[in-house]
Design goal:
The radius of gyration is 16 Å and the shape is globular. Strand 4, helix 4 and strand 5 form a beta-alpha-beta unit. It starts with 10 loop residues before the first helix and ends in a 7-residue tail after the last strand. Helix 1 packs across helix 2. By secondary structure, it is of the alpha/beta class. The protein contains five helices and eleven strands. The strands form two sheets. The protein has a seven-stranded mixed sheet. A four-stranded antiparallel sheet has the order 6-8-7-11, with helices on one face. It has a single domain, classed as Rossmann fold, CATH 3.40.50.
Amino acid sequence: MRREVNYDEVFDAQQQFRIILDSMSRPGKINQMPQMDIEPPAGINNASVLIGFALLNADVSFFVAGDNSAAITPYIALNTTAQPKSINDADFIFMDGLDDEALIAEAKTGTLSYPEESATIIISVDEISEDVLTGSVKLILKGPGVETKMQVGLSGLNPEILNAVKEQNLEFPLGIDVILVDKDNSIVCIPRSNRFVVELNEAKLIK
């Protein structure tokens, strides 16, 4: 477990928060998180960690899915002071793009009185691209913040995860926000207000 002494909790966090905010307000826009000298445990990429550093604090909670959660959870807690909780109660959920889509149904979606009490899910994938590569998933985004539509290619993603997100977001303003990141520090966001479509690269629609 390592305390990241090279990370500036004010300057770096503010810079990265602005990137996240721009990505969330412009769904489908691919931004880049900065390269930083950090050493997270195996099983979580640098971009996911930087998002956690920017968004988590002592007032929020988080959950880490996957086999390496026992190492990742104390690392995030040490560097953010956020509290680990069960997936049902967590404000932020870290998961891999090939995890079971059933995890999405366990995330909290807020209430009509307090829709902001929903979860944000940070999903690590292999690659985010403007091109839809062979074997990847095509994500088409429409709605607020998108002039007409945006298209993104995602490699290393179980498409049923996004289908599960769509199910959770049917009753807007209830729902969950999604932040996708890849191994090269690219980031793209899907706010709960977005009515996106998921397709295979062969253009076979996934319901």
